[in-house]
Amino acid sequence: METTVENNKQILKRLIDEAFNKRNLEILEEVLHPEFINHQEVFPLEAKKGPDVFRELYSKFFEIFPDVQAEYHHIIAEVDYVMARDTITGTNNGELMGNPPTGKEVAFEVFHLYRIKDGKLIERWGLTDDLGLMKQLGVINE
What range defines the domain where residue 33 resides? Predict the structure, then answer.
C-alpha cells in the first residue's frame, strides 16, 4: 500500500511541477484520465472532461498571471485519493473575469482533492481563496 500512496503523491507532484509550473501541457494525458472531471468551476470552460479541461484552465491562468507558480505545502494520499494545499503566486497582467490587468502581485491558497483511477487523476474537487485574491487585486474592498 505504501507504494500506491507514494505513487499517488508523485502523480500530483508531476501535475503541479511539470504541467503547471513548467508549462509542459504535453504531459496532461500522462497524469489525467481520459474521463477526468473537474468539479470546481474556476472559469467558464468549453472543455468539460478529459485532459483538455486542464489544458484550457492552465492556459487561462498563464494568460492572466504569466509568471504564475504553485508551491505545494502538503500532499496527503490514500489508496484512491491524493490532496494538496498550495499557494499560487503571480502578477496580474491579463484580464480576469472582465476586470482589466492590475499589475499587482498576488498570493492565494488552493486546496484540492483528487480521486485516482488506473494510475491517473480522474476527479478533482477544489477550494480556492477567491475572496483573498479579489481583495489583493482591489476588485473587492475590505
Answer: 2-137
Cell of 18: 511539470
In a domain, 9, yes or no: yes
CA 42 to each of CA 11, 54, 127: distance values in angstroms, whole numbers, following the listed order: 22, 11, 10
- From residue 87, give the alpha-carbon distance in Å to each of 6, 25, 108: 22, 20, 6
Phi, psi angle pair for 136, to nearest 5°: -65, -35
Please state whether beta strands 120-128 and 105-117 pair in parallel, antiparallel, or not at all (unpaired): antiparallel
Do 9 and 75 form a contact (C-beta atoms < 8 A)?
yes
How far apart (Å, rounded) are the C-alpha atoms in residues 137 and 118? 40
How far is residue 22's CA from residue 14's CA, in Å, rounded to a whole number? 10
Q: Tell whether 86 is covered by a domain.
A: yes
Q: Report pLDDT digits (tens) over 69-98.
A: 999 999 999 999 999 999 999 999 999 888
Integer-rounded Cα Rg, in Å, for the chain is 15
**Grid cell at residue 43:** 472559469
Query: Does 142 reside within a domain?
Result: no
pLDDT tens column, 18-37: 999 999 999 999 999 999 99
